[in-house]
Amino acid sequence: MRYGLQQEQTFRLAMTPELRQAITILQYSSVDLMSYLHEQANENPIIDLTEIDMSIERINTEEEYSPRKNDNPVDLLDFVSNPADNLYRHLKAQLGMVSGLSRLQQMIGMFLIGNLNEKGYLELDVNTVAGILDVPTDEVENILALIQGFEPAGIAARSLEECLLLQLRYAGNDDVYLEEIVRHHMVNLSCNRIQKIADALGIDIHMVQQITDQIRKLNPCPGAAFAPYERQHHIADISVEKFKNDYIVTVNDITVPRVGINPFYQSMLRKPAMEEEKRFLREKMNTALWLIHSLEQRRLTLMRVAQAIVDRQREFFEHGVYHLKSMTQKEIAEITGLHESTISRAVSNKYMQTPRGLFELKYFFTSALGSKDGDATSSESAKMRIKQIIDGEEKQKPFSDQAITELMAKEGLELSRRTVAKYREELGYLSSARRKVY
After folding, report:
1. Which of 12, 122, 282, 294 would suit a FRET pair with 270, their CA atoms being 20 to 30 Å apart?
2. pLDDT per residue over 230-274, tens digit each?
């Protein structure tokens, strides 16, 4: 051993304030980013923030000339609950407008309305209600039929199939094949087995596709718009729209103010001034320019990550949650050429608005489950199938975890009973014994 001096060359990443800022900006949601930019503008006089003009006139003008205008626009306000109303009061008011009801019939109606869940479904069967109220079963059936004719269409149904049939009846649609699919082929429809439905009905596959498109436009939760609980509202950071056969990905930055350089302070840098003043202005200018650069990098990174997710999950966007593939952040990192930690920050607290609804970006990253045909199925699609099974079960004879396991095994998805129980609890469902209505 001896002491000595030697020179060597090494590479290491220095966490500069600028790099730390870029990392912070990347993981901010749109709302958090907006607050952060206002804080920066308050600290740095050189930064100019320009709010985006969101006036109704401008929006209408842009929609008029938009090349991707939707022929059947969905009003998002239709899915926001009215704080001054709820489902119980809404249906109670309609019941009060029905003339000729006896006091007994009104009592039955109020009992049925009061026992609808937040989705608008009746979880008690007619015999149970008749037994509780000590009234004839046919009297309960008559009042239930009356309530099922109220707004919103599909209310007071006892199953998903009945809910959809009520909506078809309300719309005056009496297509025989459409009704047949709703009554007997919802499992095949949920798994997108279009050919199997066509074979069973003896009709063309294109006709089945047209019919199923109509079914998918129906509302499976007619009471959701009147939910009494307070909901969180999220602003989408990414938008995905279908244009012909492609999915167009855009970064939503309309809620975030534009960052610019204040022209007054910019001109001061060109004028003679004390060195201390110039040094101050140059530091603030460099900070502002780096902020603008970091925002552009954030936009490009989000675009790359979102596009990779959409490409990987194209089957989900085409056919729904049952076609959600297993996907990891490492896979997206390899596709985009970004570090896995960058992917983690990019998807953190971000939401994507899609033709199938609003989803957190983390929603698309799911673990893989085995199936009989060797394909990898996502855990999220398995949860949704369990949810559908429980929602469609008879409340007096709920499925046990083992029965759900066996039912899913017949459909080609192999899960253990313990996994089914875990997913059931994550979905917020009680055990079969506790779900049973006595």
Report:
1. 294
2. 445 677 899 999 888 899 999 987 777 888 888 888 887 777 667
Q: How would you write the chain as a 3-class SS string?
A: CCCCCCCCCCCCCCCCHHHHHHHHHHHCCHHHHHHHHHHHHHHCCCEEEECCCCCHHHHHHHHHCCCCCCCCCCCHHHHCCCCCCCHHHHHHHHHHCCCCCCHHHHHHHHHHHHCECCCCEECCCHHHHHHHHCCCHHHHHHHHHHHCCCCCCCCCECCHHHHHHHHHHHCCCCCHHHHHHHHHCHHHHHCCCHHHHHHHHCCCHHHHHHHHHHHHCCCCCCCHHHCCCCCCCCCCCEEEEEECCEEEEEECCCCCCEEEECHHHHHHCCCCCCHHHHHHHHHHHHHHHHHHHHHHHHHHHHHHHHHHHHHHCHHHHHHCHHHCCCCCHHHHHHHHCCCHHHHHHHHCCCEEEECCEEEEHHHHCCCEECECCCCCEEHHHHHHHHHHHHHCCECCECCCHHHHHHHHHHCCECCCHHHHHHHHHHCCCCCHHHHCCC
* CA–CA separation, 45 and 348 (whole Å): 30
On the question of a cis peptide bond just before residue 220, with omega within 30 degrees of 0, the verdict is no
Distance CA 409, CA 105 (A): 45
Q: Please give the Cα distance from 167 to 154 (Å, whole number).
A: 5
The string of pLDDT tens digits covering residues 189-226 is 777 778 888 888 888 888 888 887 788 788 888 887 77
Distance of CA 390 to the CA centre of its chain: 21
Tokens (6 digits) for 428: 């917020």
Cβ-contact 432, 398 below 8 angstroms: yes
